[in-house]
């Protein structure tokens, strides 16, 4: 009995060779995570990572079809394109030994070339530098802003975890984007930022304890955990880290008891970026419009509207 050709093909090809790089490109272009694809296929994320990095010469056809389904493409789009076999009936007198020797030589160099490409790509990666901005001063019991900017290129658009560690007794008021988790004692705040294009700005406000002694400094500390393909790496947040506790408004960057023209625009931009998370723009604007301010531990900031002769503010 003649065998069904379709059954013959399926029996002959129980496994297929996929193009891992192509599969990764399709997944990332569709904004799909390795975890999502792994759940659809029914394997682990480590397996998806190995497939995308061509760790296996072939995989089961059934898994390849599930992978194509998860990526919403035809199976042929993620299969490895093999070089056509040379015609065994070559022209008479043609020496096929040399082409075969060249093929063997090229194949032997592939691992070396792959290593060179891998190392070069690593060297070209510009590690994102998370940079924090924080005010120079803050008064006890007041709310102050903090911003962290993390640049990301279109080529390296991976996700990351941001962790910020607050001084003892300082408490988070609000955040943009919404924080993922806060430790029970409030000393650590974490954000989970998914992969995407463009720079990321994380903003948050904190309230200082009302009984803090002035003249001391509160130190912020943070790090980002970057997930780049197969591994994680941790990098400290750079930029401002120390805030001096004193009788000064956070927008008063030089601590001279007033908010002048050089200080009002930076404060305005911060308040616009962080609108809705606890900053008091009206007080800032009133201090700028007046002659200065005075801070009282019980009532907070009072706007000074008159400056008496000799520079004494009232």
UniProtKB/TrEMBL annotation:
This is Transcriptional regulator. InterPro entries: Cro/C1-type_HTH, EF_Hand_1_Ca_BS, Lambda_DNA-bd_dom_sf. It comes from the Bacteria. It comes from Geomonas silvestris. GO terms for molecular function: DNA binding. It holds the Pfam family HTH_3. Keywords: Membrane, Transmembrane, Transmembrane helix. The chain crosses the membrane at residues 102-120. Residues 24-78 form the HTH cro/C1-type domain.
């Amino acid at each position: 009995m003649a065998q069904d050709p379709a059954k013959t093909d399926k029996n002959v090809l129980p496994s297929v060779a996929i193009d891992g790089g192509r599969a990764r490109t399709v997944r990332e272009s569709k904004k799909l995570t390795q975890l999502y694809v792994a759940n659809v296929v029914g394997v682990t994320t480590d397996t998806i990572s190995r497939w995308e990095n061509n760790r296996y010469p072939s995989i089961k056809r059934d898994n390849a079809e599930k992978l194509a389904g998860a990526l919403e493409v035809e199976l042929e789009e993620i299969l490895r394109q093999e070089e056509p076999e040379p015609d065994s009936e070559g022209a008479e007198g043609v020496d096929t030994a040399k082409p075969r020797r060249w093929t063997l030589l090229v194949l032997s160099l592939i691992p070396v070339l792959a290593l060179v490409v891998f190392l070069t790509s690593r060297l070209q990666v510009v590690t994102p530098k998370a940079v924090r901005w924080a005010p120079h001063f803050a008064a006890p019991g007041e709310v102050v802003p903090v911003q962290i900017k993390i640049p990301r290129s279109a080529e390296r658009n991976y996700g990351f975890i941001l962790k910020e560690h607050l001084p003892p007794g300082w408490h988070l008021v609000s955040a943009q984007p919404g924080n993922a988790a806060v430790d029970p004692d409030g000393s650590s705040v974490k954000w989970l930022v998914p992969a995407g294009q463009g720079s990321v700005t994380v903003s948050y406000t904190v309230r200082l304890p009302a009984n803090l002694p002035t003249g001391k400094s509160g130190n912020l500390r943070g790090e980002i955990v970057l997930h780049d393909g197969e591994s994680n790496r941790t990098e400290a947040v750079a930029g401002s880290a120390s805030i001096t506790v004193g009788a000064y408004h956070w927008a008063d960057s030089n601590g001279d008891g007033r908010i002048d023209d050089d200080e009002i625009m930076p404060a305005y931009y911060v308040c616009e970026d962080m609108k809705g998370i606890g900053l008091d723009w009206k007080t800032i604007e009133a201090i700028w419009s007046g002659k200065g301010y005075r801070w009282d531990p019980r009532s907070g900031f009072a706007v000074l509207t008159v400056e008496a002769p000799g520079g004494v503010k009232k």
